[in-house]
Predict the structure.
Amino acid sequence: MESFLNGLFYCTLFDCLEASASRTLIGRSLLEKMLLGEEIMNIVACEGVERKERHEKLETWIPRLELAGFGTAPVSSNGIWLAEKLLQSYVPGYHMHQKNQFLFICWEKIPLFSISAWKF
């Protein structure tokens, strides 16, 4: 089930690529094969010490960082505004979502990556 859910994440990444880069671009082809292809193969086919890629949600990292003595720090509102404008100018469909002090880069309604600031 975990491999299947990880696969859905990659479907979303490929949807992003489809919307933002032509299939004829050499850079896109290299990205798909060398980065995403290797990563997908590692997540789906490897277990234990052979597995190098491990995607963990923010909810997993929060207690780890807090246990290590870190606390959340606010991300500047100017930084959030600039990031939102940059995403909107790149390709329609990307946006930022803020929940508490955490930011999420989303494609359509699906969060792809989280952004957070921490202080010690």
Observations:
- The beta strands are 71-73, 94-99, 102-107, 110-115, 117-119.
